[in-house]
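Narrative of activities, Objective 1.

The group set out to show that a structural description can be obtained from nothing but a protein's sequence at a throughput compatible with the screening campaign. Below is one input-output pair from the validation batch, recorded exactly as produced.
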Amino acid sequence: MRGDAEEGTRACWGSEGMSGDRATGVSNTKLSRPDPIAVRSRPIEFAAKPWGSFSTLEEGPGYKVKRLVVRPGGRLSLQKHRHRAEHWVVVAGTATVVRGKQRFALRRRQCAVIPRQAWHRIENRGRQTVVVIEVQHGDYLGEDDIIRKQDDYGRIESRAESREPSLRRAQTSRAARRAPSAECREPRPRGMGPRMREAGPRGGSARGGRK
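Output recorded for this entry:
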């Protein structure tokens, strides 16, 4: 665990191979200890969770920025995402991070990279609230792109419920293509089908047919 902490101090966990250089995990700037409650921001979304809460601070094409607040003793579900990777920076407290088969501690100003399709979670084993700034990257950042493997709060979806969101969107698109067109079509006059026109010379004209 000590080696893991030292490695996390020198560089951002999992940053090798992402851009060719190792991303710096710790700034040299001396910062005062932050108050996890006193935050100057205007979240565009807030959601309370059993483990704490998250706020969406900013969202744009291909990225989303969140602020995760994990209460003491709380932990997120063991989960993965099909369409996005995540970058975590701890700004308060000490987080225990699970990523694949690794488990390591992240202290204030340390960071970790969570690749797409990697099982991961954040745990708060301390007495201080853990605050993490999460930056998501991917082509789809919806909240339904979460596959849970283990959860302390009973939020494990069935296999049918955890299907890939893009598959559901593709099925909806195919259903829309199969739907009848809404364009206006002139109705065919009743009694003037091909059989009626062929029977005209034998049984009289279409106007003088049998009643």
